[in-house]
Amino acid sequence: MQKRKRKPTNSQPAADAVVEEEPCLRQTAPLQLRYYGDPVLRKKAEPVAEITDVELQLAEKMLITMYATGNGIGLAATQVGVLKRFLIVDISEVADEEYEPVMLFNPEILSAEGEAVAEEGCLSIPNVTADVKRPEKVVIEGINVESEQVRIEADGLLARALQHEIDHLNGVLFIDRLSGLKRQLLAGKLRQIQLAERPGGNR
Ligand code: NI
């Protein structure tokens, strides 16, 4: 998911510059984001059986990838082409209260209540935003990077971001939650994203 108010987009990955000076940081370069139209975004991710160094590296790389966008507040592994049930959410820059970044493996929604409508965007669907109706409060369980089972009671933006990322792990995009008419209005923009030429190809 992405912030509502965008920072100027000149905050593109400064990673190249860093890599030149410090070759050892090469491994922390941002991962390639997958965009609308990429079939991987429609696949269901698999639960993670054990959190090993591979998963921890994925977590670190996803954080770097999300922060490099300059406007990301959440990212699911699916969005970097990894079909593992893992998400990160960091709303600390846009929230009034203090929040720690959430990094969760195998997240499950235990309960949901209420209803709220708010604008969403997605790093995989650039320049498209829409109001989405979701439960207002959720209780989510998952496993953190220390391999501990944790439970998060969330409302507001945190609840929304967590649900948005869990949707990704099930191959669901926020535009799927819009009415047919609203989606039709976005069809042109979505088509543009599908047809956009990107470094590394469109997969
Ligand atoms: Ni998204």
How would the blueprint of this fold be written?
Blueprint: H1 15-21, H2 53-69, E1 74-76, E2 86-89, E3 102-113, E4 116-122, E5 125-134, E6 137-143, E7 149-155, H3 156-169, H4 180-195
Antiparallel strand pairs: 1-2, 2-3, 3-6, 4-5, 6-7
- In total, the number of strands is 7
The molecules bound to the chains, other than polymers, are:
nickel (II) ion
- Give the CATH superfamily: Peptide deformylase
Mean of residue pLDDT?
A: 89
Rg estimate, integer Å: 17 Å
**How many domain regions?**
1
Structural class: alpha+beta
Main beta-sheet annotation: 5 strands, antiparallel
Give helix and strand order, one letter per element, not per position.
HHEEEEEEEHH
**Quick one: CATH class?**
Alpha Beta
Q: How helical, in percent, are the residues? A: 25-40%
What is the third-level CATH name, the topology?
Peptide Deformylase
Strand order of the largest sheet: 1-2-3-6-7
Q: Any idea what the CATH architecture is?
A: Alpha-Beta Complex
How would you describe this structure to a colleague?
With 203 residues, the protein is of the alpha+beta class. It has a single domain, classed as Peptide Deformylase (Alpha-Beta Complex). It is built from 4 helices and 7 strands. A hairpin with a 2-residue loop joins strand 4 (116-122) and strand 5 (125-134). The protein is globular and about 45 Å long. The relative contact order is 0.18. Residues 6-13 and 17-25 have low confidence and may be disordered. The structure holds nickel (II) ion (NI). Nickel (II) ion (NI) is lined by residues 1, 122-124, 164, 168.
